[in-house]
UniProtKB/TrEMBL annotation:
SUPFAM superfamilies: FKBP-like, Triger factor/SurA peptide-binding domain-like. InterPro entries: OMP_Chaperone_SurA, PPIase_dom_sf, PPIase_PpiC, Trigger_fact/SurA_dom_sf. Residues 175-275, 278-375 form the PpiC domain. This is Peptidylprolyl isomerase. PROSITE patterns: PPIC_PPIASE_2 (PS50198). Pfam families: Rotamase. GO terms for molecular function: isomerase activity. It comes from Dyadobacter sandarakinus. PANTHER family: CHAPERONE SURA. It comes from the Bacteria. Residues 117-144 form a coiled coil.
Length: 455
């Protein structure tokens, strides 16, 4: 495979595999920690290669040759190594946000944290630590790619030339695509469940008042897994860093005092102030979260969505404005409620088996322009909700043409040009980093290097 095609395949595979979740073979007790390649200070273990290969198989996909996977891993490490040389970094908050989203997806997929632990044979803390490193590397790779090819631009003339270069009998067939919008309202935790959580925290407070160690109780009971392992310690925080409910309660305490039960967007807290230092304060807390799969009241969500639907139907409120101001899905709210295709970043979804089944079957009974009644919905982080769907548009299947498919063609041209920029970058970067590959992979030609050669 030439370098140009390799870069395309490697970047695709790395981002695709990174978007999933692979934590190694801990659950089977297999140890494959043998270094098979090195790129500057970055090492590739045999387990990484086997994990990537196994993930393809587990998901029922056709796995590439292992040599190609090894090449993709080395390209990944080259991007990381050059990022270090060029001082390209990502902020912790970017990593934390992505990590929280991935852990939420896993909880939804497995049903509970307990099920995750049983599946992987590792604690949640260990899994998060491993996944955090994966997420951080993924973010750095993405940022490095943007640094290399982010300034690449294309012109309409380039798109037209590309289209005209495709033989007429080779033009791709474009399936139907749809634009779907939604407005999401989360369910309300019932009074009974809220009271249950308050009672649990009050009981823990009484135990602490009778002499039990607050930190130990936090380690055992707190559902803030990040701080629980440190006895609920949140370290020093500046004023304004925490949500108002938490900060107000913490700053009303004297060192050593415990708060009443405090409710915030994250759940219910029992707070113990440790100390203050100028404009900073340090506190411990025990957090209990509502179970969004049980004890969630959908009545208010349904009433709110019914009211919005009525206003939209009589045209006194536009769907986009209603979504922006009311939807609890903040990601789509900013795009007027339109659901994006994550692989393209465009608000058009291919109407085929790749679509979310719940969405596919919902719109199967709708016509373009229809606005659905409130239907049940599960958010990516596993919370119960309701939503209304707007069937905005549907395209007919057709042979690609410049008028209807300009945006798709432009994306192809732009990606080709970016890949060319990456190709040129890799040619130069090979001379800036040290690459070594174990002789057992002598049949692999990695970036044109002979096995065991250094570059």
């Amino acid at each position: 495979m030439n370098i140009k095609n390799l870069i395309k395949a490697a970047v695709f595979m790395l981002l695709m595999v990174a978007s999933g979740t692979s934590f190694g073979q801990g659950q089977q007790g297999v140890s494959l920690d043998k270094i098979i390649a090195r790129v500057d200070n970055h090492f590739i273990l045999k387990s990484e290669l086997e994990d990537m290969y196994a993930q393809y198989k587990a998901e029922g996909r056709s796995a590439p040759e292992k040599c190609q996977l090894l090449e993709s891993l080395i390209i990944n490490k080259m991007l990381l190594a050059k990022a270090e040389i060029d001082s390209v970094i990502v902020e912790d908050k970017e990593v934390d946000g992505e990590l929280d989203a991935k852990m939420g997806y896993m909880i939804q997929r497995f049903g509970s944290e307990k099920n995750i632990v049983e599946a992987y044979g590792k604690s949640i803390d260990n899994l998060k630590s491993e996944l955090r490193q994966q997420v951080k590397e993924q973010k750095i790779v993405e940022k490095m790619q943007r640094t290399i090819s982010g300034n690449v631009k294309i012109t309409p003339n380039e798109v037209r030339k590309f289209f005209n270069s495709i033989p007429k009998d080779s033009l791709p067939y474009i399936p139907s695509e749809v634009e779907i919008g939604h407005i999401v309202k989360l369910g309300t935790v019932t009074r009974e469940q809220k009271q249950k959580l308050r009672d649990q925290l009050l009981e823990l407070k009484q135990r602490a008042e009778k002499g039990e160690d607050f930190a130990t109780l936090a380690q055992i009971y707190s559902e803030d897994l990040g701080s629980a392992k440190n006895g609920g310690d949140l370290n020093f925080a500046k004023r304004g860093a925490m949500v108002p409910e938490f900060e107000g309660a913490a700053l009303s305490l004297k060192p050593g005092e415990m708060s009443d039960v405090i409710e915030s967007q994250f759940g219910f807290h029992l707070i113990k102030l440790v100390e203050t230092r100028g404009a900073e304060y340090r506190a411990r807390h025990i957090l209990l979260r509502p179970d969004y799969n049980k004890g969630t009241d959908m009545g208010e969500a349904v009433r709110s969505l019914d009211s919005l639907r009525a206003l939209i139907q009589v045209d006194s409120l536009k769907f986009a404005k209603a979504a922006l101001n009311n939807s609890d899905d903040k990601e789509t709210a900013e795009s007027g409620g339109l659901i994006m295709d994550r692989s393209t970043g465009v608000a058009r979804l291919t109407l085929d088996a790749s679509m979310d089944p719940a969405l596919y079957f919902a719109i199967d009974t709708m016509k373009v322009g229809d606005l659905s009644k409130p239907v049940a919905y599960r958010t990516e982080d596993g919370r119960s909700a309701m939503r209304i769907l707007w069937y905005k548009s549907k395209s007919q299947p057709h042979t690609a043409n410049l008028r209807d498919d300009y945006e798709k063609l432009a994306t192809i041209v732009l990606n080709n040009k970016r890949n060319h920029a990456l190709e040129e970058w890799f040619k130069k970067a090979q001379g800036d980093v040290y690459i070594s590959i174990e002789p057992e992979y002598k049949n692999c030609k990695v970036l044109g290097l002979a096995t065991g050669d250094d570059s």
